[in-house]
Each structure stands twice: as C-alpha cells, then as structure tokens.
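Annex B. Sample input.
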Amino acid sequence: MRHFALTVICCFLLLPASANSIPSPTAAAGTAAADTIPELELPNVPATLRDLRTRANYIVAHFWDALDFRDTRRSHNRAFMEQSFSNFISVFPYAGEQEQRETVGSLLKKAEADSAAYMLLIDIAEKYLYETESPMQSEDYYIFFLENIVTSPILGTQGTIRPRRQLEAARKNRPGMTAADFAYTTRNGRRTTLHKTAVKGELLLIFYDPDCEHCKETMAEMQQNKQLANQIAEGVRTVLAIYSGDDRELWQRTAVSLPESWVVGYESGLMQETGAYVLRTMPTLYLLDRDKKVVQKEVRPEKLFPAENNQ
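Annex B, continued. Sample output.
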C-alpha cells in the first residue's frame, strides 16, 4: 500500500485520458484479508480532460466523493484514513493552488458530518504536513487546512487556540518574503543585524542550540560537507549560525569550535519572545538570497546536501 500513491499519479495523470480507473492493489493481488477495508474508490476522470493539470485538478476535487464520513467503519479507521490522505496529497503537486485550497475547504466541510472523523482527519493532516520529520511535510498545504480549521464549529473557541498559533507562525517568513530582521553579536563582539550581514551568494541561516545533541550532529556533518565548503570558498554561499538563547557563556565556550569561514552569532532570545521566528525544532535552517528574502523555510539539511554529494 505504501507504493499506491505513485500508482495513483501514474494511472490518473500520466496515462491516456481513457484510463479512468484502476483496481486497488489489494484487490489486484487477490490476497486481501476478509477484514481489510478496501481502498477508497477513486474518481473516474472524464476523457475530455487530457492535460496533466486539468486531470489533477479534477482528481483532487473529487478524491473524497466515495467516502461518507458518517460511515465510521472507514472514517474512524486510522490506517484507511492515513493511506487515503497520503494518496490524496500525492496528487497536490500537479494541481493548481486555487484548486488545492478549495478542495481542502470542501473536504473539511464534508468531514464535519462526524466530529470524531473530523478530529482524526486534522490529526492526520498535522502528522503528514506539519511535523518536520514527515517526508510529505508542506507548510503550503498545511496552511490551507489551518485556514479552515480555525473557523471550525467542531473545535470551538478553546480548540482553535493551537491551530491559530500554528497559522500565525506558518504565515511568517514565507518563501518570497524578506526574512524578519534581528540583532546579534558576533564572535569578535561586534553588534550587527541580519539585514546588515554581508552576504556572498545565498545565505544559509542556521538557528542552533549548543546543548542540543541533534544540533551537534547536524553541525558536525555540515562542517565535514565538501559541497558546502566549496560553496563558501567560491563565494556562492554564506553561513550564519545563530544561537538564540539565554546562556551566553555556553555560546562563547562553544562558538570557537565552529568554522572560521562561518559567521557565528549570539541572539538573546528576543526574536523568539517577539514572535519574529518560531523555532519548532533545533536546528532550524532557512535559505535566503543575497537580499535576505526567504528561498526555503525550515529546510532539512539532507535536502540542501544530498548524501551522494558529500563524498
């Protein structure tokens, strides 16, 4: 079942328009257990829709047509709902932004037919689209969900407090926006700001904690990364590593261990207190252009430096 998302894309987007439906992988294999819930029946794409974008738009708009959320055998089944959600989101990259937004609104409205099913759905959306370790993590898509969740009658005023905070954080420092400025102190004691930092090429902004084991591992990997070292030497990338916390002595003891080619700074935590940046995990990486506009937000190191380029 974990490969079914790829099957959805191939059969509905890449094959001729006449190929409108496919059997579920369990049915095709003929080995489904008696108590297995069949895959969600997929929409039949009209043969008149021939290009990839219009077909994808149709699929996301009608993906959940076959599910009645009052059918609790399916809508309360986490395995079924997670697989369906994964298949659904796998089509999103091929659809238009307006269609993505509209279909999320329609889906959540439909899910309100059963409060438990609604709660399960938004929990799955958070797991797949918000958690940083998820391979399908997408703040863009999660914003569509949050925009609807915060107005949901299912959650009530108290229930929407957390998603409202998530939405507020998600809307900050978005790709294309100028990154919020902040002041910091360098290793030589000079006070400056993000916006005044001299940049060669792109700026890799790293928020880290010297006491964080994952930070230590990630920073060590970056120091050993030949691709990053070459980019710095060639003047196509600048690294700015910032500790935003209250233990300046800790920072001073540990900052000397970071490469001289990196700009290393201390920020007293004011930017987190003001909400300029919400650091959900450590380390948190941003990729900015030379004008300090966000290129990628909360990007994972492995996406910037694939393992094969680290040899």
